[in-house]
Amino acid sequence: MTHKRVYTFSLNGEIGWTSLGTREANGFDTNLRAIGITNRQLALLFALERNKDATIAEIARELALDRATVKRHLTPMISTLVVEAAPASRGRDTAFTLTQMGSRRLQTGLKIWKSGARAWRAATEGAAASAVASAAK
């Protein structure tokens, strides 16, 4: 089975990731598509909320991604006015911040993500209970 990284978000503001089967992982992206983002882009928005004026290198480090991947996912969010780019206060870097629209999309995205995570957890627990019941017969 092919696996895909899905980012996870905790109530205390931490970000992590887990590896799920492609079908399950794509379910998170399908749910978020309603607001025009993917799970990885939601993670980028979350990282930007935590780290105001972050550079691509800082975001990449936090999300354990390479800089090219971060840039590839930031670019469409800049063009849709979810993220804003400006010269960083240090060196020649570019700093990225959430716009008001980006903050709203993050909050909506987290609600969608949490709903999807609850549904996935319920389905997983239901499947595990069925497997145990079948094994007991």
Structure in words:
With about 140 residues, the protein is of the alpha+beta class. It contains five helices and four strands. The strands form two sheets. Strands 1-2 form a two-stranded antiparallel ribbon. A two-stranded antiparallel sheet has the order 3-4. The longest helix has about 35 residues. About 25% of the residues are buried.
| Average pLDDT figure | 79
Which CATH architecture? Orthogonal Bundle
**According to CATH, what is the class?**
Mainly Alpha
Largest sheet: 2 strands, antiparallel
Poorly predicted residue ranges: none
**CATH fold naming:** Arc Repressor Mutant, subunit A
Rg, Cα atoms, Å? 17 Å
Number of strands: 4
Number of structurally distinct domains: 1
Shape: elongated
